[in-house]
Amino acid sequence: MEAEAARYIGAGLACSALIGAGIGIGNIFGNYVSAAIRNPAAAGPVFGQAMLGFALAEATGLFGLVIAFIILFG
Amino acid sequence: MASPLEQFEIKEIFPLEFAGYNISFTNSSLFLAITFVAIVAFMTLGMKNRAIVPGRFQSVVELSYEFIAKMLGDTAGTESRKYFPFIFSLFIFILFANFIGMIPYTFTVTSHIAVTIAMAMFVFLGVTIIAFARHGFKFLTFFVPKGAPWPLLLILVPIEIISYLSRPISLSVRLFANMVAGHTMLKVFGGFVVALGIFGFAPFLFIVALIGLELLVAFLQAYVFAVLTCMYLNDALHMSH
Q1: I need a labelling partner for B57 at 20 to 30 A (CA). Which of A38, B148, B173, B209 fits?
Q2: pTM of the prediction?
Q3: Do A55 and B220 touch (CB under 8 A)?
């Protein structure tokens, strides 16, 4: 296999880290919405924690994305 | 076409050399200085009049102070008050560096792992020193989960130690990766706008939305860095698990 082709395949594979980030972010906001519907009074204070969880989950996916960028352009 | 990673290149502005080390004044140093000046201007100009009923500018400064003070109190307890200046400077520095990086043609200081890992190592070493100064060698029991049966401890203790040691890495890589990924993504979509010609308005609209997301991320990552520092501080002060 050519090195160039292997690079593109590797970058694509590295992006699969975003699968987990997608599941995680969906899980966080899904649970946040269902919690906010059950107890609207708690929706405000919990939103900060939901955003914290979003940022943490997004970051794990971005680790993979950065690897993909480094493979592609590095 | 230029590579999307070109924006992170460090260029020398004033080449300098000291004892065999390259200590040139680079665009990274320039934007570190700009960040510093912007923070000083923000804090001093905002608090210049010190009205009892704050104006808009003073409100923003007070809001940022109260925001961090509340966050520190909630996560690390009242004893952590004396570390407030450090946490506040950390948050404001990362916030300003991220936001200044969002201006076109600027350089994002936090997109370099050398900057973020330096901050993360200071946090990690500082917190570890606080923990040992406060609890002495009793702090080592932090790595032993309470109530676990002893055969499990053989596995759990190394895991706890590794997760503790990986804190500065995850802390720094999280910030660096978010900044690099966001800015690269904007550049890649910018390339689509040029390549598609008249149909470039579609990715252009997407870029507008992405910039909104990136501004959110810029704030959130500064917040996450500060919150995690507070959590580590809480572990050091109270050894809670």
Answers
A1: B209
A2: 0.86
A3: yes
**Interface ipTM > 0.90:** no
> In 3D, which of B178, B176, B177, B186 has the Cα closest to residue B4?
B186
What confidence category does residue A44 fall into, taking pLDDT thresholds of 50, 70 and 90? confident
Cα pseudo-dihedral B225, B228, B233, B234, rounded to 10: 150
Residues B195, B197, B203: CA angle, nearest 5 degrees? 70
Structure-token pair, residue A40: 């609207």
Domains in chain A: ranges and CATH: 3-73 (1.20.20.10)
CB atoms closer than 10 angstroms to residue B240: 9
Asked if B59 reaches chain A (Cβ–Cβ under 8 Å), the answer is: no
DSSP for residue B21: E
Nearest in space to B87 (alpha carbons), one of B230, B238, B221, B218 = B230
| 8 Å CB contact between B58 and B67 | no
Nearest CA in chain B to A63: B177
Among B224, B228, B229, B230, most A C-beta atoms within 10 A, so best to mutate, is B224
